[in-house]
TrEMBL record:
Source superkingdom: Bacteria
InterPro entries given in the database record: RutC-like_sf, YjgF/YER057c/UK114
Matches recorded under Pfam families: Ribonuc_L-PSP
Protein name in the entry: Enamine deaminase RidA
């Protein structure tokens, strides 16, 4: 069975002993991901659309690192600092996941730094175009 982890180099990954992405067999989990750039700066402070796009691109990178793709995502959880911006989040999510249609949960939550607007985590199952999973 395939087992892979991927660490993005985030400052808490070693301290908290976690991976950005983990794959066991066909199952993949990507940890809560925010718009903190590798430099430590917040990407587009206060802009939920720009942050959602940035975060989803980071999630795509994490998925690829363990052999998965966005089309394999079955569940998305989003944590928004302000639910009045949910429509802007939904627009970007809808563009990225068009014709993939994962289940989606969005809740309002406090995030770790002022200016962060969204945190997203995903679960995925690697499958073929017919939804079949090989090796199980």
């Amino acid at each position: 069975m395939t087992r892979r982890i991927w660490k993005s180099g985030g400052r808490f990954e070693e301290v908290a002993s976690y991976s950005r992405a983990k794959r066991i067999g066909p199952f993949v989990w990507v940890a809560g991901t925010t718009a903190i750039e590798p430099s430590g700066r917040i990407h587009a402070p206060g802009d939920v659309e720009a942050q959602t796009s940035y975060v989803l691109s980071r999630i795509e990178e994490a998925l690829k690192a363990v052999g998965a793709e966005m089309r394999h995502v079955g569940r998305v959880r989003a944590y928004l600092t302000d639910m009045s911006s949910a429509g802007k989040f939904a627009h970007v999510h809808g563009t990225v996941f068009r014709d993939i249609d994962p289940v989606l949960t969005a809740v309002q939550a406090g995030l770790t730094q002022p200016g962060l607007m969204v945190e997203i985590d995903v679960d995925a199952v690697i499958h073929d175009e017919n939804g079949e999973i090989s090796g199980i």
